[in-house]
Amino acid sequence: MQRFAYANPATLKEASGLLGNSWDDAQILAGGTDLLSLMKEGLTAPKLLVNIKNIKELTAIAPEKGGLRIGAAVTLDELAENALVRRQFPALVQAALGITSPQIRNMGTMGGDLCQRPRCWYFRQGHGLLAMRDGKSLIPAGENQYHAILGNSGPAYFVSASSFGPALVALDASMRVVSPSGTRDVPAAQFFVTPKDEASRETVLQPNEILTAIHIPAAAAHSATYEIRQREAIDWPLAAASVVLKSGAPVIVLGHVAPIPWPAPEAGKFLAGKPLNEETATEAAKLALQGAAPLSQNGYKVQLARVSVKRALLAAAKGA
Amino acid sequence: MPDYSWPAMEKRKVMGTRVARVDGGQKASGRAKYASDWHRKDLLFAALLSSPHAHARLVSMDLSGAKNMKGVAAVRAIAKPGDEIQWQGAEIAAVAAETEEIARDAVRQIKVEWEVLPHVVSEKDLAAAGTRVKAAGEQVTGDPDQAFKDADATVEGFYGIPVITHCCLEPHGQVVEWPGESINYWPSTQNVSGLATDLGTALKFPPDKIKVHQDHVGGGFGSKFAADRWGVDCANLSKEAGGKPVHYFLERNVELMIAGNRPSAFAKIKVAAKKDGTITAWQSESWSTGGIGGGGSPPLPYVFENIPNQRKKHSAVSINTGGVRAWRAPNHPQASFLTCSALEDLAAKLNMDPTDLFLKNVDLTARAETYKVQIAKAKELIEWQKHWHPRSQLTAGPVKRGLGMSIMTWGGGGHTSECRTSIFPDGSVVVDIGTQDLGTGTRTILNMVVAETLGLPLSAIKVNIGDNALPKSGPSGGSTTVGGVTSSSRKASVNALAKLFDVAAPALGTTADQLEAVDQHIQVKGNPAKNLTWQAACSKLGVNRISETGFNDQRKPEGLNSSGVGGIQMADVSVDTETGKVRMNRFVAVQDVGLVVNPKLAESQVHGACIMGICAALFEERVMDKQTGHVLNPDMEFYKLAGIGDIGEIIAHMDIRPENDKRGVIGLGEPPAVGVVAAIANATANAIGVRVPEVPLTPRRVLEALGGRNA
Fold this sequence. Notes:
The complex is a heterodimer.
Chain A (H helix, E strand, L loop, with lengths): L4 E3 L4 H7 L7 E4 L5 H6 L7 E4 L9 E4 L2 E5 L4 H6 L1 H6 L1 H8 L4 H6 L2 H6 L5 H7 L4 E2 L2 E2 L27 H6 L3 E6 L2 E6 H4 L18 E7 L6 E6 L10 E6 L6 E5 L6 E2 L1 H7 L6 H11 L11 H20 L1
Parallel strand pairs in A: 1-3, 2-3
Antiparallel strand pairs in A: 4-5, 5-10, 6-7, 8-9, 8-10, 11-12, 12-13, 13-14
Helix pairs in contact in A: 11-12, 12-13
Chain B lengths: L23 H5 L15 E7 L5 E7 L1 H4 L4 E6 L6 E2 L5 E7 L2 H9 L2 E6 L16 E3 L3 E3 L2 H7 L2 E9 L2 E2 L7 E5 L5 E5 L7 H9 L6 E3 L15 H13 L5 E4 L2 H7 L2 E2 L2 E9 L5 E10 L20 E9 L14 H18 L4 H7 L7 H15 L1 H4 L11 E14 L4 E7 L5 E4 L9 H13 L6 E4 L16 H24 L10 E4 L2 E4 L2 E7 H6 L6 E7 L10 E14 L4 E11 L7 H20 L30 E6 L3 H4 L14 H13 L10 H7 L6
Parallel strand pairs in B: 1-14, 12-13, 17-18, 21-22, 28-29
Antiparallel strand pairs in B: 1-5, 2-4, 2-6, 3-5, 7-18, 8-18, 9-16, 10-15, 11-12, 11-14, 16-17, 19-27, 20-21, 20-26, 23-24, 24-25, 27-28
Helix pairs in contact in B: 5-6, 8-17, 12-13, 15-17
């Protein structure tokens, strides 16, 4: 780990002023469960860490216009235990509980989940975000069993690691982003982006911006997240789906199958006006994956993603 | 000659009871001191520069950047120009500095120029491994060709088990202090008594001037017998730094790359049988790797070694990865998996219950009677009759349940061991023995044997282990420790007690041979009212102490220990055929281990072995990238181990019977680790109706075996 300075601001303004124009200048420290690993591995080396856990406004969950405002520094455990969240957004609670390490739920934050870097083992072993070598990615001919089956025309083949991304996209949430030049609200669906080059990132956040809160509009109806993980112990999902049942068509968003949370509008459209049962859910799941283009080793993820969609739909229906 | 034999089963008061580990509290509370906890004054921290390439020649190395850094105390080149490096993670240079951070910064300042050479890091595709394959000669017994021709049924299959690593939670390493005349060495080792010789030979330094001390070790599994290059470099760094102590432990990623692995095993197997299940022929073409030196050869066919007609061929594949080390019963888990998989497939083809197939052929094994009893017991414990179904009749619904079995054998015996038991005038007892406790409970076992022998409570005895100043005891390998140390400590204590009897006899008006030690008294046999308390007897020593040794000669166990065990294991799994997830319901291990000193610790050993096997069956695999030659999962995020929720229920049944007990003490470190993968793989095949040919049984492999049935 390279040496770094540490700042512990008490206000958002102060924190914002400490950030720079490059990820090498400063980075935000919340739970640190990902950032510190990246720093230890030498994958990132900021000169300054700005702790945001002492900024009060970032640590609260509050009702807002029938929906909720969740501070970016709220821990996963606080989120999962919060009565408002539990009542209104089971999809978020289920995603939080899918992170089966109590230590990470205690330390990790909502914002950290959304901003964590990909778990691609080529990236984590120092081959770069896109694992490029001699102008092409190592992944198509490499060990791609955990990689993308959708949105994988390159050069990015990793999957978005966020547990909450799919649910937030499905819930039509927006992210509040603050920088010295002002505040902007980014719809969840636009927050995640597929990088086109090695220098890009997986979200729209700039080095001088802070994700401060997630705003979730009033829940129209019921929701669920279903993840398939190999282990009960902490493990990254092989596929996941979040579903929000609305009066019109259900909203279905897949996780861990593409570089970004992956909406499946055709599947939702198919279900519009239909009863939700094993048969219709199975059909919708097929439609959700019809564009899948697996790599050499991850064809099985198509099946897993289908099962996630089906089971998330049925779980949401059961809750409804 | 004194009678060293074990007290009769029904007369034992301490041995055979369920004593908890004497150091359990220390470990659970974090007070137990491991090698890396030795924070000596002026401690320096070492960091390693390891090879970024799987195969390369070192052209040049410039250490000046590291040497010139403030806080750096010593820098050593490990590789030199011209050296050919054969795996990623190989040691290139090491730095010792005042802090870990400075040491790591300094390592980054070392400049190395490489000539990258072509690598091979995969052995599964034998044809693609080309010149890296070394085939051993074909072995033929009987007339396999004729036997296959005459067979009523033949089954052919491909099976594979990958390289896994030891993944010790405490990485390899040590603290060493070399001020000049002598060396202080705090290793993490399975070999306290032998390590000074190993280090001394490498350093050309007298071993008797090397003090080795270890209180606890956080896992070795066969990978921690030697001083290793890191031990030698650590000593040299200390010397260069003027004798300051150096703390040098491998990082997790390097630990997984270079500190040991278990060879893979792949095989194409063909088995022939009569209609009634009698096995008539075996044919196998197997291959494996354990790194650049090739790999181990699994003993095939496993346990059913007397199949009359056999043809076998094994090849070792040399690949550019870190080297193999002994892993809990070397070659046996692989052999058990390959053999039991093929036999389960044969049973399915014959539409037979595999337990019947195993029993039908049990005379082809060396321990037919043991296995017969064990199969019956294991079936009872796992409720085989209730839950087993033929492979052709699957349970209803998407989640399928299945049962599977496996068989194992292992040696054991007792290694060479010397122990000293001292009795002091104040009644205190000290046991000195240069062994190590790998977490298996060696301290506790020693305490129990001596307490039993002297008629004392556990708390009356102090056991000293883990130091090479103590009488020498063997390395903990091959499941030989408990056999060795129980024998030497029994003998030392019997000898010491005889001396105490000599002192006590006149006071009791009798001769020494008429005395016995019972419940903290020295009493006359047949007349217990005539006695001295232990304290009173010891006080007659005046200012002297008794100090007697006992020795276990591994070739002459004298009835105290023996070798050769059998075991049967059965798994009960549920497989979600939509997701390919295999869940453990229950795992049963029925294990013969001769005389069981402490059933609680024995069961605990079995639990640990089963958990390790469950990890290997479901999760563990070293993943190599063919393009870069790199290990892709040298971490504990993608080198997956089971968590408590992945284990299911484990039922350990120690096969305690008089006929096993009379064989004496037999080690248990390895036996229960052998058959776990095989039993789980068979249970999975039984559950889903098709064989998943390779482990670990990941969702990917299970779904691929199901052939997209649900897609």
